[in-house]
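A reminder before we start the practical. When you read a complex entry, don't treat the lines as separate problems. The point of joint prediction is that each chain is placed relative to the others, so the output describes one connected object in space. Small molecules and nucleic acid strands, if listed, are placed in the same frame. In the example below there are two entries. Take a minute to note the order of the lines before looking further.
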Amino acid sequence: MKSILPWFALACTAAAIIAPTPARAHGFEGDRFFPPTIQTDDPFATDEFSVTYQSFNDPASPGDGTPKTREMDVSSEFDKEIFPKFALGVSGTYINLDPMDHTAPAQDGFDNVTLSTKYQLWEDAPHEWIFSIGGEVDLGDTGSKGLGVNSFSTWTPTLYFGKGFGDLPSQLKYLKPFALTGTLGVAIPGEASNPDGSFNSDALQWGLALEYSLPYLQQHVEDIGLPKPFSDMIPLVEVSSTTPFDRSGETTTGTINPGILWEQSDFQVGAEAVVPINAHTGPNIGAVVQVQIYIDDIFPKIFGHPIFGHDEGNETGPGNTP
Amino acid sequence: MKIIHPLYLPLLLWLTPVVAQAHAFLDHADPRVGSTVQAAPSVVTIWFTEELEGAFSKIQVFDAKGREVDKKDSHVDAARPAVMTVSLPALPPGDYKVIWHAVAVDTHHTSGTFPFTVQPR
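Here is the predicted structure of the whole assembly.
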């Protein structure tokens, strides 16, 4: 068996070299590049790798004796296109909880592992539309018990969409760089109640990201002479919310995240403020920074195309043919 | 000392990241994207962010009625592989649309469009 491995490696390499697959660009619909956004999952089933750092302060909970805590999360997600327009993903988050009054030791560990899937169901390149279906499952009891991770899995079937406004009439040309993406899902916990008698509610989860692409303005609408780095920036606002349906008596929580994405050929850096939409979400503004690595550019022979089959009609393309 | 089996070397080379390769996008163009020009241009030239494969890359120019008006001689500049040009006849005043298709040297496909206008003097 041991002697077979080098020959297997050589055969795999030869197969990849002899039968190269055209690589496609990530997240394009016509002229529109939909950047991977931080809070709202984008609708594309493509090869992606990201690392996200988030920091915010949790308030002290009156009555239960918990101190005000600074929370720092470092998460990473990897997605791979398996079949054309169908991708699987895995993500994990390392959490550090540090009581700000130092009355208790800091706690850290991993949150539950999350698996995800996505399929690009319908696309309209000339009008920069895309609809996808998919979802994710938070695998119960796969994280650090000291953090109180859920012992049960939670399934979240989700709809995804993206719409660019490059098809607006030329009189509205300065609105063409706008694009909107969004998600709508229902989180369904695997167990309805906990041993302590509390309930786990199904919850409506939605998110929207409104972005204004300066690269789109420069490359497809009008070259207004923006210098770098501004010509590579995409200002955006993301909104996300969770509303429990039943049982738990909890209320809606969510955040509004204004921020900016900076596009480079091999990576994207994004930074956003995290503003709670209500007191129930929290009283403090947090911050999140994400680095998105375009692994199809760095490893073009491995990424940027499905493992099985070939992408067709999903490359970048002239959106509005004459 | 254990030495890596030589048959693994091609695999390692294949896995080696190629940071210099990326998608080719429009950097700037002449006529400028979205511009209005007084004199009809004789060529459309696009500067890309990456070097192109000439055999698979092209520029086309269409008038407002969707008719291709370029001379169909699109080519990548031999001395500057990130620059592509197509020639134009004497264009009458009107709105025009440029459509470009680019294949970078790493085989990544990209394409896009932009308008320009020739205005009567």
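Discuss with your neighbour: Residues 23-298 of chain A form a domain with the Porin fold (CATH 2.40.160.40). What might explain this?
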